[in-house]
Structures are given as structure tokens and as C-alpha cells.
């Protein structure tokens, strides 16, 4: 039987994943006095998406000074928008500094979570089991590559791979390259490698709006100044955060807002001004509102695709052959390399892990036909299982680091409350979860994501699976859990 005086060190935490959110969770748990932590990471290094994505040009489209932990700000970022390798090194350094590596079990994937007598039984890929009082799933969102269903994909005799599975050290130099897809990833690859490749063929199914924000180098003097003045650094972060929130994050949740229209005008200006060839310009012109699909930020994509060795292919792909890609004009474009920049399975939260909660309920069944969670954090009947950047959260429109910090703080409040009088178990009420979901769905009607495009934001019903309100509302709503929306229970006495 649980007692009211349970010591924090008696409570075991399992964190799944050692990416941005997993590292953060470990740091915050330790800070709160919970030291019995085991982190399972399926790969051999920390860093998540920034370890995995190493294609040419990989960078973050959230400004560097905002894309770092609030408690570990980096004064010496090299660029306004940093490259993937710099961000990867940042996470490694933070993990080292806070002793997170000591808690990580690398090369172990969690394959099953099963609730037994109020404890989570955690099975890993080596067949072993451990138990945990609390599980934090920090498994990432844009993580499982989505391969296109194109006939003949296995026939190609050259090199073919998904953008998130870039072979170590693979160079596109002097190659005839085909890139399938026109999302943020494809745009970054094209812009970064156009000078290296022999020919670049970009296969566009849908045109994208591109915001032309310059990516300036941060000079030595500014870096020195920021290093010597934490106040200046904080001021700069606050300013960037305000601007980013007002002109981007809040604009997307109100399609009719002045800010949403400004985004549209800015993208239009980029297209009109930076694509001199009128035929190419028309091919690149989207027929939907800017930011309906995830907005692309690039200082130089239009310049790259306008070069003589760049070819924008808008004819449909018929099949992949041994030598290249056949399009519906009957032509086969001969290629050395095909990069599938075709995105990710965004509803694969926790999957392919098997998760079994109360009453032998399987999460896969609960999430059929689609995933949901109370405040994107917890699912009824799955007590003590916390999801960071979980279903319908503010993904894609805010800095995910900000979001994860707010979520971890919220989870910690729930855990502290749960152990305060020895209850230990916490889960959201079903009615509260249904109410949240109904309000969320209603609010999506005003957002830019439903203004007439297809995107990974939309679920099987065409409803955006994201937080449909402002960042300010997210901060407010997540400041303190509404305790009435939760059930706090004791661990069963036979545990
Ligand atoms: P994405 O935005 O989902 O784009 C996938 C692209 O592949 C789309 O252009 C899609 O066309 C195309 N596609 C998919 N299946 C296809 C098929 N069978 N035939 C032809 N085209 C096909 O993927 P992503 O570019 O990897 O980006 C995913 C997300 O990762 C972004 O939205 C962003 O949130 C994040 N990201 C961020 C950064 C950054 O911070 N700068 C960089 C990279 C990625 P349709 O549009 O017609 O569906």
C-alpha cells in the first residue's frame, strides 16, 4: 500500500527517447528531486531529429535564439537560423553538462508498455523488462519516414533513400539528382546542393508558399556581446519570441487576421520578385492561402530553382524505373540519385510500441481511427503515461522546445500533486478529454489549415490535428492543471 510519505527516489521514471524532449524531461525531473530515471534511446546517440536528419542544408526554421532551452540559452549561434549539426551539438553539450548521458540506455527500443497493478511494465528490444511508476514518452513527432507509394520504387539501380535516412557522408556532387516532394526538407536540399549537382530535378506535386527570410551570419562582436550579457541574450530571445508569435504562430490560428494576410503578401512578394522566369513563376504559384500547408522559410530557394541546372517537374510521376523517374508525358528522366523528401507519418505517436493500459485496453484500439489526448498530454485509462508533443499539440507553428518546456512543467505539477498524499496514480477524466477534443475541433474551423489545401496537419476527416488556439492560450491553459479534470488514485494494495 502506498504511503503518504513516499520518497521521491522510490519513484522510478522511464523516459522514452533522448531527443530534445527526453533530455529536457531528465533535467527537469532531477531538478525537481526525482533521480531514479532510466532513459531508453533506440539509437546510439542523443539528439533525435537533429541526429537523424543530416541531409544537405538541414536547418531549423525557428530562429536559433528561440530554438534552445530557456534555461540553457546559447549566446554564440553562428546564424539567425542554425544548421542541423550545430543544433545537434547543442543538445549533446546540454546532455553532457546536466549529466543526462548517465541515465541513458542506448540502442534499446521500448517495444511494450503494460500497466500492471498501477506500475508500468516496460519491455525493451533486448527482451528485458523493467517497471516504472511514471513513463514520459518523448518519442518525437516527425520521426517515422513516409515512403511514397510509387510503382517501381524498388527497381531503381542508382541510389534511392528517404531524406531522413541520408547515408553517412553521401555527396550529391556532379550527380543527376531527383528530389521528390516540395516541403521544407526538399527546399533545403535543393537550395543547399544546387551548386554541387550536375542536374537537379525537383518533382513537385503541389506548389508551396515560401517566406524569404534572410539567414544572416551572427558576427563575432554580437556573439561576444551576448556571451558577456545574459540580460541582452534574454532580451533578444524575448523579442524574437514576441515577433515569431505575433507574425506567425498567432496568424495561422486565425485565417482572417491581419497577420495571416501579411504572411500571404510577404510570400507573394518573394515569388514575384525572386523568380524572373514567368513560366517557372506560374508553376511555383500555389492556389491556396499561405501557411495552409506548413509554411516554408528559405532565403534562397527561388534563386536555386531558377538556375540553369535546376528543373521543376510538375508532370505526374508514373513510375520509378531502373534508370530514373517516368513522368506522364512518357519521358523518363535519367537519374543517379533519388531523394524521397516525402515527409513523415505524423500520427505514429508511440507506435509501433504496444501500449496496454487499464482493463487491458490497447492504446492502438483507443486511438482508432485517430489519436487524441487530454491537452495533448494524457489519455484516459493510461495513468502516469505522459506524452510530450503528443496528439493535437502545438506542433509546427511554435518552437517545439517552448512547447515541451511548458508540457514538462505541467506534467511535474500533476506528479507532485499525485504523490502529495500518496495517491501516485493520475489520469484525465474521459468527459474532460471529450470536452477538450470537442472544443479543439470547433476552434480549428477558424484556422488557416482548413482554407483549402491538403497537408500533414489534417487528419482522416480533414480536421487539423493541432492546437488551434494562440500560443498565449497554450501558456495560460498549461500554467496549472485543472485538477477537477483528473482522477487521482492510490496504487492498488496488492501492488
Ligand atoms: P512534408 O512537408 O510532409 O512534405 C512532403 C512532400 O512530399 C510534399 O511536397 C508532398 O506533396 C510530397 N509527396 C508525398 N508523397 C508524394 C508522392 N507519392 N508523390 C509526389 N510527392 C509526394 O515533409 P518535409 O518536407 O520532410 O517536412 C516535414 C515537416 O518537417 C515540415 O513541415 C516541418 O514541420 C519539418 N521540417 C522543418 C524544417 C525546418 O525547420 N526548416 C526542415 C525540414 C522539415 P503534397 O504537398 O502534394 O502532399
Task: Walk me through this protein's architecture.
Helix 1 (20-31) packs parallel to helix 11 (400-420). The protein folds into 2 domains: 8-144 and 346-489, FAD/NAD(P)-binding domain; 159-216 and 225-340, FAD/NAD(P)-binding domain (3-Layer(bba) Sandwich). The chain has helices at residues 20-31, 49-52, 84-97, 184-193, 220-228, 230-249, 258-274, 278-284, 301-305, 363-366, 400-420, 430-443, 471-479; strands spanning 13-16, 37-41, 104-106, 110-116, 119-124, 129-132, 134-137, 159-162, 176-180, 199-203, 210-211, 296-297, 310-313, 317-320, 324-327, 332-334, 337-340, 354-356, 385-387, 425-428, 486-489. A hairpin with a 2-residue loop joins strand 4 and strand 5 (119-124). The radius of gyration is 23 Å and the shape is globular. The longest helix has 21 residues, at 400-420. The model has no long low-confidence stretch (mean pLDDT 95). The strands form 6 sheets. Strands 3-2-1-7-19 form a 5-stranded parallel beta sheet, covered by helices on one side. With 495 residues, the chain is an alpha/beta fold. The structure holds NADP nicotinamide-adenine-dinucleotide phosphate. The site of NADP nicotinamide-adenine-dinucleotide phosphate has 28 residues, from helix 4.
Which descriptors apply to this entry?
495 residues; alpha/beta; FAD/NAD(P)-binding domain; 2 domains; five-stranded parallel sheet; 13 helices; 21 strands; 29% helix; 17% strand; binds NADP nicotinamide-adenine-dinucleotide phosphate
Topology of this protein?
Elements: E1 13-16, H1 20-31, E2 37-41, H2 49-52, H3 84-97, E3 104-106, E4 110-116, E5 119-124, E6 129-132, E7 134-137, E8 159-162, E9 176-180, H4 184-193, E10 199-203, E11 210-211, H5 220-228, H6 230-249, H7 258-274, H8 278-284, E12 296-297, H9 301-305, E13 310-313, E14 317-320, E15 324-327, E16 332-334, E17 337-340, E18 354-356, H10 363-366, E19 385-387, H11 400-420, E20 425-428, H12 430-443, H13 471-479, E21 486-489
Parallel strand pairs: 1-2, 1-7, 2-3, 4-18, 7-19, 8-17, 9-10, 9-17, 10-13, 11-12
Antiparallel strand pairs: 4-5, 5-6, 14-15, 15-16, 20-21
The structure holds NADP nicotinamide-adenine-dinucleotide phosphate (NAP).
Amino acid at each position: 500500500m502506498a504511503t503518504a510519505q513516499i520518497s521521491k527516489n522510490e519513484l522510478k521514471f522511464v523516459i522514452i527517447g533522448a531527443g530534445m524532449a527526453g533530455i529536457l524531461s531528465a533535467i527537469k525531473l532531477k531538478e525537481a528531486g526525482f533521480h531514479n530515471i532510466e532513459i531508453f534511446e533506440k539509437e546510439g546517440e542523443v539528439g533525435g531529429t537533429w541526429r537523424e536528419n543530416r541531409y544537405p542544408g538541414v536547418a531549423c526554421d525557428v530562429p536559433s535564439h528561440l530554438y534552445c532551452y530557456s534555461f540553457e540559452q546559447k549566446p554564440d549561434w553562428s546564424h539567425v537560423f542554425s544548421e542541423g549539426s550545430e543544433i545537434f551539438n547543442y543538445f549533446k553539450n546540454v546532455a553532457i553538462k546536466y549529466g543526462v548521458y548517465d541515465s541513458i540506455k542506448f540502442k534499446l527500443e521500448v517495444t511494450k508498455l503494460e500497466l500492471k497493478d498501477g506500475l508500468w511494465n516496460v519491455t525493451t528490444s533486448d527482451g528485458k523488462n523493467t517497471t516504472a511508476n511514471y513513463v514520459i514518452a518523448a518519442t518525437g513527432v516527425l520521426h517515422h519516414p513516409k515512403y511514397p507509394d510509387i510503382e517501381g520504387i524498388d527497381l531503381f539501380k542508382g541510389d534511392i533513400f528517404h531524406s531522413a535516412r541520408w547515408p553517412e557522408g553521401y555527396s550529391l556532387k556532379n550527380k543527376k539528382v531527383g528530389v521528390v516532394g516540395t516541403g521544407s526538407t526538399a527546399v533545403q536540399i535543393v537550395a543547399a546542393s544546387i551548386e554541387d549537382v550536375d542536374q537537379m530535378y525537383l518533382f513537385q506535386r503541389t506548389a508551396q508558399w515560401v517566406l524569404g527570410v534572410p539567414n544572416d551570419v551572427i558576427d563575432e562582436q554580437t556573439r561576444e556581446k551576448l556571451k558577456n550579457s545574459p540580460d541582452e541574450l534574454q532580451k533578444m530571445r524575448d523579442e524574437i519570441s514576441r515577433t515569431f508569435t505575433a507574425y506567425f504562430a498567432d496568424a495561422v490560428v486565425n485565417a482572417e487576421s491581419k497577420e495571416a494576410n501579411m504572411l500571404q503578401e510577404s510570400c507573394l512578394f518573394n515569388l514575384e520578385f525572386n523568380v524572373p522566369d514567368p513560366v517557372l513563376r506560374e508553376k511555383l504559384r500555389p492556389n491556396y492561402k499561405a501557411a495552409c500547408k506548413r509554411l516554408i522559410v528559405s532565403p534562397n530557394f527561388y534563386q536555386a530553382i531558377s538556375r540553369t541546372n535546376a528543373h521543376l517537374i510538375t508532370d505526374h510521376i508514373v513510375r520509378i524505373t531502373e534508370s530514373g523517374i517516368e513522368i506522364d508525358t512518357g519521358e523518363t528522366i535519367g537519374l543517379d540519385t533519388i531523394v524521397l523528401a516525402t515527409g513523415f507519418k505524423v500520427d505514429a505517436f508511440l507506435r509501433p510500441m504496444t501500449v496496454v493500459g487499464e482493463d487491458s485496453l490497447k492504446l492502438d484500439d483507443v486511438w482508432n481511427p485517430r489519436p487524441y489526448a487530454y491537452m495533448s498530454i494524457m489519455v484516459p485509462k493510461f495513468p502516469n503515461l505522459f506524452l510530450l508533443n503528443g496528439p493535437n499539440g502545438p506542433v509546427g507553428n511554435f518552437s517545439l522546445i517552448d512547447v515541451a518546456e511548458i508540457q514538462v512543467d505541467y506534467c511535474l505539477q500533476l506528479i507532485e500533486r499525485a504523490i502529495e498524499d500518496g495517491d501516485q496514480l493520475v489520469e484525465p477524466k474521459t468527459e474532460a478529454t471529450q470536452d477538450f477534443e470537442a472544443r479543439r475541433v470547433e476552434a480549428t474551423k477558424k484556422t488557416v489549415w482548413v482554407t483549402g489545401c491538403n497537408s500533414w496537419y489534417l487528419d482522416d476527416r480533414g480536421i487539423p490535428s493541432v492546437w488551434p488556439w494562440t500560443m498565449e492560450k497554450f501558456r495560460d491553459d498549461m500554467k496549472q492543471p485543472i485538477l477537477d479534470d483528473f482522477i487521482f488514485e492510490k496504487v492498488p494494495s496488492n501492488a
